[in-house]
Design brief:
The chain is 92% helix and 0% strand. It has 73 residues and is mostly helical. Helix 1 (2-34) runs antiparallel to helix 2 (39-72). The longest helix has 34 residues, at 39-72. It is rod-shaped.
Length: 73
């Protein structure tokens, strides 16, 4: 049963990473679209995308680590 739980957590971690990628792409595209008016929008959008991407990958890493501990038991 622990292997099944591990794989379920790994799929969830992959979903979290996908949300991070989607956030990154949408934020960058919207920033580029609106950057013609104000360049500070590009900077804020890039920082937002980077922060969201980092949080998503950090969360996914923690979930993967927890999945490894389940299998180790």
């Amino acid at each position: 049963m622990s292997w099944v739980d591990c794989m379920r957590l790994r799929r969830f971690a992959a979903s979290v990473r996908a949300v991070g990628w989607i956030n990154c792409l949408i934020s960058i595209v919207l920033s580029l679209v609106h950057a013609t008016e104000h360049w500070d929008v590009l900077i804020v959008g890039t920082l937002w995308a980077t922060t969201g991407f980092g949080l998503a990958y950090g969360t996914a890493w923690l979930i993967d680590r927890h999945a490894e501990r389940i299998v180790g038991r």
